[in-house]
Design goal:
Helices cover 28% and strands 0% of the residues. The chain contains two helices and no strands.
Length: 46
Amino acid sequence: MPENFVHLIITSLSYNVGKSYKNHNDCMPYKEYLGSDKDVRKEVCY
């Protein structure tokens, strides 16, 4: 994406409370959960 292309991003991460998803482990260890959106934040915030 070009720089300054996006001005607002809304995302909704899982709550990590054991909800059943088809393609997501919603019972991750806490440290793994905190880093689960790292790639998204890296792409859009830096």
